[in-house]
Amino acid sequence: MVCIDIKHLTKDFGKGQGVFDLSLEIEKGEIYGFVGVNGAGKTITIRHMMGFLNPDEGRVTINGLDATKSSAEIKRFVSYIPGEINFPGNTTGEEFLKEQIYLSGRGSWERAKELIKLLQLDATAKVRSMSKGMKQKTAIVSAFASDADLLIMDEPSTGLDPLMRDIFLNLLKEEKAKGKTIFMSSNIFQEVEEVADQVAVVRKGKIVDITDMRKIRYNEDKVFRMEFKSRTDFEQFLSLDYQINKVKKEDLQIFIQVNDENINQLVQDLKDFDLVYFKEIKFSFEDYITEIFKEEV
Fold this sequence. Notes:
Elements: E1 2-14, E2 17-27, E3 31-35, H1 42-49, E4 57-62, E5 65-66, H2 71-74, E6 78-81, H3 93-104, H4 109-118, H5 132-145, E7 150-154, H6 162-177, E8 181-186, H7 189-195, E9 198-203, E10 206-212, H8 214-217, E11 221-228, H9 231-238, E12 243-248, E13 253-259, H10 263-270, E14 275-281, H11 285-296
Parallel strand pairs: 3-8, 3-9, 6-7, 7-8
Antiparallel strand pairs: 1-2, 1-4, 4-5, 9-10, 11-13, 11-14, 12-13
Helix pairs in contact: 3-5, 4-5
């Protein structure tokens, strides 16, 4: 079932700024990553989801509701972490969180306290005096304590140290296990690779590719790096019928690409050669992004 449906969304601010004919479908219960450089259109897209902007063309619907016309109703089941966090007033973190739970009519203070402890947040501090990282933690606690069905987050791990980022990713996995839907923009490739089910790549306001992350995590086309003990073996292997990606003659190294179906054949063939080492080169999400942008250029 489609949770967020974006059809031909266009918002033109001039001079190439905005989003142009952008379409996405986010299924209920999945974590959807939205990746692009700064200024690519991630925040503009998210602000349309939240009903903060009116499109020039196209539309966004969430659970069948128009994001512009029914934004108040949509906010009843959505939690949102903005890219730039500016708290109203100057209450303590605890007062802010309790007020958000009261106003939304969702979640519990008990869950908020668990998250405060987990994220090592000083909720007694005034929100305006908090560091960027502490403000980010406060926003995360507010979002996850609300028990919303849909979480929309604009670069939510910004300002978190590596340990806190790992805790945040575990929270995302827990929410997914509960059946929640999560839409998350990010510039951190590793976190997207770890948690996302689908990823859309946006560049200059347009979608350039959408991929199923399983194809990257469990890539069927493996790349192997081999180094041979002798030049004779090195040259003999080159004569075999394998896809050669790269050759380093001075080091007697060969990089080959092999589909999973042919791995057993490769193992059999290598029995006839003396190797210094044999290693798989993992294909990462960063590699995928590099390939996409090379194709675009």
